[in-house]
From TrEMBL:
It comes from the Eukaryota. Keywords: Coiled coil. Gene3D superfamilies: 3.30.70.270. Belongs to the beta type-B retroviral polymerase family. HERV class-II K(HML-2) pol subfamily. CDD domains: RT_nLTR_like. It is an enzyme of class 3 (hydrolase). It comes from Hemibagrus guttatus. PANTHER family: ENDONUCLEASE-REVERSE TRANSCRIPTASE, REVERSE TRANSCRIPTASE DOMAIN-CONTAINING PROTEIN. The keyword Acetylation does not apply. SUPFAM superfamilies: DNA/RNA polymerases (SSF56672). This is ribonuclease H.
């Protein structure tokens, strides 16, 4: 580097000398130094790359590897640098001032507009009780749950600062949080946030409505939110129909329950009517008064209600876009996007608003604001949908008529459609539920194609690393296993695939691996060698492993668990003539026979996982 600086300085002096005296000798001297600078730059870049690739091939450099993949993916997208935007009439704005005004106008309207609702006339008794002081172990747990490497808020204090300070930070934060709890007033700095528009990867890139606003808030405030959330979870009991952000529940539970329910009705040759309800801007439209009411109705101590109210008091934000930051504006409606506490607060609201209309799982299932309503008759599901609409809209939550969809499983001729306030609800043959495509005929062919597409999308996101010739095959295989393969496996533990469908997944996987290793079919290299070089096992084997792992998890759960109830559910009716449709348990029985396991083995978790394990080469 020192040599480069010396040569670069000599080049600048030679350029000045040539500008003052345009002789051939001065020109030759400048050109020669110019070439030397280029050679030194090339050497420095090569040295830096060599050091980078050497570091990436070590355990310490693995985090840098994924950071490099994300950076190369961002560099390849133009969305990051959108400097023009359209106004509400569709005219393109080009000046920095007008673009900033438009972003401010859009988000200020979005975050301060409340849907029409009935004002509550009934009150609710507040729970006045003494609350304990914040303990150090609560702060430790909250800090442990905070992820590192996240964008900081306006105070520029990352959570890593508190983690590095150890016990000193725990003691300081415990004292700070106790002062906040006692006074019910948090620092004014925590009220500020920065709103970053994130493109949804669909629609017009110049339309503000195709961006999701994520708030960058103070990390210290997020630690405080984690402490409050942990205490609220001990007090509030959320209904069993809510699967979003609940302990021991995930999207897989809801997907599995719905798929097995559809399978049972298909085998019994009975119709099952499902309505997938969509709420308009659910998080941004929650009325604050409804939030306080629902918290009190759930038995939350008034002290915590006032603490949460203070979190939303006088909150202000700015929009950070490609052309700079907008002016500040107030946020008076909805929950904070990007907040650690918001998901649980939303669950409390949905729990109270749906108390009188929800049915037991699987007839009603919620994942945050994603709601599915099922019934044996079209008339009943239509009636239930109307009851849900009334219960939600009278409290300020609006059902989207255009995005709510209806699907009939095992449909007979002339089953009709569902109406909502006189309008016909869109009828579909397939629906993407929590990221997994379910079909009205109970098959999973469309889902396999979606998994292949998701795998290619993940592969493109890290192609900057996977297609780099200087990165070893071992590292490429690891990136593939941790980024691409999970996208292809998502939701497949809930279905039983045919051989043809497994083959479809494996063909896509081998194409990705060959692209990554720079190998074509013309090179006549066998698939086994490709997998061995990248240390990647057969995808079909991994699908079997994830399916058996999930089945073992279901078997070990209590008898009231939704997955167990669905598997044990029996419906009157006979399967149709001809070749029987493939069922989930058909695939499980084949898998267990292949690995030499039985249903009883699933009770021992460690033994079960050892039996079904299928490692990579």
């Amino acid at each position: 580097m020192r040599k480069f600086r010396i040569v670069s300085k000599r080049k600048r002096l030679a350029k000045k000398k040539w500008d003052m005296d345009r002789t051939e000798e001065n020109r030759q001297e400048y050109k020669e130094l110019q070439h030397r600078v280029k050679r030194e730059v090339s050497k420095a870049k090569q040295k830096a790359y060599d050091e980078l690739y050497t570091r990436l091939d070590t355990r310490e450099g693995e985090k840098d590897l994924y950071r490099l993949a994300r950076q190369r993916d961002r560099d390849g997208k133009d969305v990051q640098q959108v400097r023009v935007i359209k106004d509400r009439d569709g005219r393109v704005l080009t000046s920095e001032e007008s673009v900033q005004r438009r972003w401010k106008e859009y988000f200020e309207e979005l975050m301060n507009e409340e849907n029409e609702r009935e004002k509550r006339v009934e009150g609710v008794n507040s729970v006045e009780q003494k609350v304990d002081k914040i303990r150090k172990d609560e702060v430790r747990k909250a800090l442990k749950r905070m992820k590192s490497g996240k964008a900081v808020g306006p105070d520029d204090i990352p959570v890593e600062v508190w983690k590095c300070l150890g016990e000193a930070a725990v003691e300081f934060l415990a004292n700070l949080f106790n002062r906040v709890l006692e006074s019910e007033k948090m620092p004014e700095e925590w009220r500020r946030s920065v709103l970053v528009p994130i493109f949804k990867n669909k629609g017009d890139v110049q339309s503000c409505s195709n961006y999701r606003g994520i708030k960058l808030m103070s990390h210290t405030m997020k630690v405080w939110e984690r402490v409050v959330e942990a205490r609220l979870r001990k007090v509030v009991e959320i209904c069993e129909q809510q699967y979003g952000f609940m302990p021991r529940k995930s999207t897989t539970d809801a997907i599995f329950a719905l798929r097995i329910l559809m399978e049972k009705y298909r085998d019994g040759q009975k119709e099952l009517h499902c309505v997938f309800v969509d709420l308009e801007k659910a998080y941004d439209r929650v009325p604050r008064e409804e939030l306080w009411y629902c918290m009190r109705k759930s038995g939350v101590a008034e002290k915590y209600v006032r603490v949460v109210q203070d979190m939303y008091e006088r909150s202000r934000t700015v929009v950070r876009c490609a052309v700079g930051q907008t002016e500040k504006f107030n946020v008076e409606v909805g929950l904070h996007q990007g907040s650690a506490l918001s998901p649980f607060l939303f669950a409390i609201v949905m729990d109270q608003l749906s108390e009188e209309v929800r049915q037991e799982s699987p007839w009603t299932m919620m994942f945050a604001d994603d709601i599915v309503i099922c019934s044996e008759s079209r008339e009943q599901v239509e009636e239930n949908l109307e009851r849900w609409r009334f219960a939600l809209e009278r409290r300020g939550m609006k059902v989207s008529h255009s995005k709510t969809e209806y699907m009939c499983v095992n449909e007979r001729e002339g089953s009709g459609t569902v109406r909502l306030q006189g309008e016909e609800v869109k009828k579909v043959l397939e629906f993407k539920y929590l990221g997994s495509t379910v079909q009205s005929n109970g098959e999973c062919g469309k889902e396999v194609k979606k998994r292949v597409q998701a795998g290619w999308n993940g592969w493109r996101n890290v192609s900057g690393v996977l297609c780099d010739r200087k990165i070893s095959a071992r590292i490429k295989g690891k990136v593939y296993r941790t980024v691409v393969r999970p996208a292809m496996l998502y939701g497949l533990e809930t279905v039983s695939l045919r051989k043809r469908q497994e083959s479809e997944l494996e063909v896509a996987e081998l194409k990705m691996l060959r692209f990554s290793l720079g190998v074509t079919r013309l090179d006549r290299i066998r698939n086994e060698y490709i997998r061995g070089t990248a240390h990647v096992g057969r995808l079909g084997d991994k699908v079997r492993e994830t399916r058996l792992r999930w089945f073992g998890h279901v078997q070990r759960r209590e008898s009231e668990y939704i997955g167990r109830r669905m598997l044990d559910m029996e419906l009157p009716g006979r399967r149709q003539r001809g070749r029987p449709k493939r069922r989930y348990m058909d695939g499980i029985n084949e898998d267990m026979k292949l690995v030499g396991a039985s249903v009883e083995d699933a009770e021992d978790r460690d033994r079960w996982r050892e039996t079904i394990r299928c490692g990579d080469p």
